[in-house]
Amino acid sequence: MDNRNRAKRIVNMALQSSPPPSSSTSTNEDFSSDHSSYHPQQNVEISTELEDSEDNEERRDPEGPVGNLGEINHPDSDEPVKGRKRVRNFDRWAKNIRKRKRTAGQEYRNVRGSIVPAKVFTPVVCSCRFKCSEQVSSENQEAIHVMFYQLTSWDAQTTWLCSAIMTLEPKRRKQRQNAQNPSRINYVRQFMLLDKRVCKSFFLKVIQISNKRLDYALRNKKSVSGIAERDKRGQHVPANKLSDEKLNWIKDHINSFPKFVSHYGERRSTRKYLRPDLSMNKMYELFKAKCESEGKPILKKSAYVKVFTTEFNIHFYIPKADTCKTCDILEIAVKAEEDIETCLAIRVQKDQHIKLAGEVRNILNDCKSKVKTEESLLVATFDLERTLPLLYLNTGEVYYLRQLQMLNFGIHAYTKEGEKVLMNMWPEHCGARGSQEIMSSLHYFLEDFLEVKSLCFFSDCCSGQNRNWNVLHFMIFLVNKSPYLESITMHYLVSGHTYLPNDTDFSFISRELKKKTDIYTPEDWMKLVRDCRKQKPFTVRDMKNKFLDYESLTTLFKDYQIVLREGAKISKMRKIKFCKGSSIISYNDDYTETYETVDLKPNDMDSGTFFCNLKNYIPEKAPETRLISYQKMQDIRKTLKFVPPIHHQFYLTLPHVPRRGGNQEAQDDVNFLPAVFGDD
Prior knowledge:
three-stranded antiparallel sheet; 36% helix; DUF7869 domain-containing protein; alpha+beta; ten-stranded mixed sheet; DUF7869
């Protein structure tokens, strides 16, 4: 044991005399500088832990070799923020794994593909004059061998080699007379193992290293301190490395763009979003323009992209899937509840909610199947797309100004002949995004299907557009006004689970938009929508000056306050049936065939008068224009310098509030944020 303690003291001395790790921030080290793989108090007994370490690393998840996600400091939180892209992990590179295995004496595959066997200890027998085999037993030889390869750092092994070899001047020199070549021996080396002098051959065989490896270690040994210099390979700073000042130019430019936190996805997510009409190419072009204007050298795009993807968690779009409020609340309640029975009851409630969301989808699929055989049946889904900026330009200044918006109401119809998609489009100053615009679009849509007897509608449950008393009154008006229509069934999808075929239709527009550079007028938008799908192109209807005012239709029905007192809450209605010749609607909240009913005919009016009023009702034409705010008009005027003069007249004649503080009743119900983040 005394000999083994001496071996440990040699190792401790090597580690304590080893220089500290370099303060260089370069990540291009060819060899690991981690000295922590061997602790001064670590036992030198033979262990399989080291042999298994690399195998364990290789059995990790497949993302390991690619690298871990980069982390940055989030300005609003002390927690690290992960970048959107993985950064290079040099430790997992094949060549660095090969170096570590070679240094640790493990089996590895060299660059030629050949297998290099592991360093397996074999007892060394030596019959030299130093009697090495007698001085260092086979057990101690094995302990030294294992100890050396537990020093998995190249620098630590080099330091140990230097500490185990004494370099001395010759004690005496033989003076030769008339010698043309004097002696070139300036030093002698003594090899020590466990404080015992051994021969060089024995020393090399115990550790199983080559003479070249030994000479390399001793060549860099400092004469004064006796410590080997640290391996400098891979430590230089690249000549083309960007300075911190230039990297800050990129960071400052990225931070200059307004970012938004979405209500989509995880609430604790540090991800932020830029406007969806921005892109990496656009941002880099703006960065180049800024550098040129400030007289700075233009940095490469690769540097800009690297900083953006590794040091910022920013994306250009909003996730498609909206989280369900009910699912979130119930999930939090389950985690917070300690009582098992209550927890199970909450889980049952959540399962029922998810099942309910699936029921209406099954109904939609059944209706799509029936329509193939029933000629008198029409099935349609409808939804309002996110607002679209009317001016779609690449100019950076436009991204910071309020713009006029374009609205698109999509209707996806299923008939016996096939599927038809109608896009009803209008600019913001011609109509809002309320129930009046929805009813007008449905009115013109049904003019193409006059002979339909049964109509099934599916939509989300947005109260401002689809699920309100105005729409219910309109459905009763339709079914009684049409000479052929006999019934209408409305299905409102469960909130949070409202993905419709219209979302797929809108995705064609989004993809086509990426190919466009400049859009100036509503006609440009309509042409884009017509051309975005090559097979079965969309039908586009310009709704300008076509909106109808159904506001007065409400006066023909029972006041909704009275209906509420009778127990009919529209927020609880998921499936509603309207039949010809009846003022009674049937509804439920579970999509079954069990209904509750409510009569929407005024209590003081007989049925004959009520239906006569419905048949004689003719909606008035809605106002052709709406006022936009003074502030938005000012921003629109600022953008005209980027618009061809031929289109200036359209923008300069927009109806708007003439001055600050004026009547702004009709302003900005279509505002900036919906244009960026989609529907409410």
